[in-house]
Amino acid sequence: MKYQQTLDKLFEVVGGKDNIKNYEHCATRLRIILKDDSKVQKEMAEEIPESKGYFFNTGQHQFIFGTGKVNAVYDDLKKVMGDSEQSSGDFKEDVYKNLSPAQRVIRTLADILVPLIPALVTTGLLMGIRGLLLELGVEFGDSGLALFGMLTDTAFAFLPVLIAYSATRKFGGNPIIGIVVGLMMVAPQLPNAWAVAGGDADPMTVFGIGLVGYQGSIIPAIIAGYMISKLEKVLRKVVPEMMDLVVTPFVSLTVTITVMLFILGPILQVVERGVIESIIFLIEAPLGIGYVIFAAFQQLLVITGLHHSLSIIEISLLNDTGQNVINTLITASMAGQFGAAIATALLMKNKVKRSNALSSTASTLFGITEPLLFGVNLRHFRVFISGMIGGAAGGLMTSILGLAGTGMGITFIPGLLLYTSSFWVFAQYLIVIAVAFAVGFILVRIQSQSIRNEIN
């Protein structure tokens, strides 16, 4: 096996192969849950070949290998463990046992929303392509624009359908029932939520309750998926098997949609709007303060794994305005850390260490910063702080320019496609990256003597 030496050292660090309870991997990290955490030799974690860093979070020992490589290491680990059918479901159950209530809520939201990101990323890319073609002077005509509107608007118009499906699946219910309930929540018989909000339509009044569609809603669809799943589990305990096929879906569907339309739905819509608008208000604080703070600290969320919770805000921004400033600020935060890491790598005298550090930064260009953070910046407090200040500078520039993306899920170089509405917008995006990178880079160079002593 290609990574036999890596695994041999890994087993030594975690207290032996038999101490591994469960394991999984994400885009960059090998995640391991152990039977006995006290057996870990953390001081030896840096000696694992090919590994760019190690940290412990929410009961998981996480080893950073980087995009692509982590898949190969994981495959070799499965062969050695003799478990070709490792269950990701069991791994998630083990992870949840180690989470606090707040962490469980955030992790649950991430598990529901993250599977939707590829569809929303594609929609954002299509918006970018439309903007680029229009900027180049391509004439579409009414039919062409209508067709592009179908491509770019459908995912958001039927967002509750996608979320209800994902939530129902997450909570263990029948996803098809989730889809049907989601479709009912955006049915054309209900006044469109956006039209009502804009004053172009009036709510449907039933029993004195004003009903509107749930276009763009997130939390009500999640609650609907949760209700469907819980009702199904309860009903299957009391409904005879011969009647289960008819009674269980009928009751779970009708009760859920009734409660959502007449009781919980209207309340949740108000709560959701209030919470999200409050968060957006803080981000858009006067004088760009919110942008500066967010871009400075966003990479801390990446370290903790909480960055997926931002999806709910990004989706709301795109629903309401068609723009997503969070995307720009995330890129600014990445660029600041990228600049600090490059400057640090260039200060390293050892050619092997310098090469490893530079390779750790490469994935940042495609929106993945874990190798850079754990392999370079977090090892030296001055470097990480320099990167944060660089991100803050990029956030301030974002505020000055009034820049925002047209989609979500892609950042840095791939994110260029979200800023193609004009050449100037495209240039602004590059300016934000350049400012954040330059400030992070220069701050490390200013401290070069102190940092050189730490890293060499």
What does this structure look like?
By secondary structure, the protein is an alpha+beta fold. It has three domains: 95 residues, Glucose permease domain IIB (Gyrase A, domain 2, 2-Layer Sandwich); 126 residues, no CATH class; 170 residues. The radius of gyration is 24 Å and the shape is globular. Helix content is 65%, strand content 6%. The two termini are 33 Å apart. A four-stranded antiparallel sheet has the order 1-2-4-3. A two-stranded antiparallel ribbon has the order 5-6. It is built from 19 helices and six strands.
Care to give the gist of this entry?
Pfam families: PTS_EIIB, PTS_EIIC. This protein has 456 residues and is an alpha+beta fold.
Outline the fold blueprint.
Elements: H1 4-14, E1 20-25, E2 29-34, E3 53-57, E4 60-64, H2 69-81, H3 88-97, H4 101-113, H5 117-135, H6 141-157, H7 159-170, H8 175-185, H9 193-197, E5 204-206, E6 209-211, H10 219-238, H11 241-283, H12 289-304, H13 311-321, H14 325-347, H15 351-362, H16 370-375, H17 381-401, H18 423-446, H19 448-455
Antiparallel strand pairs: 1-2, 2-4, 3-4, 5-6
Q: Report the portion of residues in β strands.
A: 5-15%
**Quick one: biggest sheet?**
4 strands, antiparallel
Radius of gyration: 24 Å
* Coarse morphology: globular
Number of domains: 3
Helical residue percent band: 55-70%
Q: Which short descriptors sum up this protein?
A:
3 domains, 6 strands, alpha+beta, 456 residues, single chain
